[in-house]
Amino acid sequence: MVNHIQAGLTIFIFVVSVLSFWGSLRTVNPYGRHMQPGQRHTLPALPAWLLFEAPQLFAFALTFWLSADAPSTAAVILFALWQAHYCYRALVYPLRMRDRHKRFPLSGVVFGILFNSINGFINGYAVARAPHLMDAAWLHDPRFVVGLAVAVAGWLINFQADTILIGLRQDGSTGYKVPYGGLFRYVSSANYFGEIVLWCGWALMSFTPAGLSFAVFSTANLLPRALSHHRWYVERFPDYPRERKAIIPGLL
Ligand SMILES: NC(=O)c1ccc[n+]([C@@H]2O[C@H](COP(=O)([O-])OP(=O)(O)OC[C@H]3O[C@@H](n4cnc5c(N)ncnc54)[C@H](OP(=O)(O)O)[C@@H]3O)[C@@H](O)[C@H]2O)c1
Question: How many domains does the chain contain in total?
Answer without folding.
Answer: 1
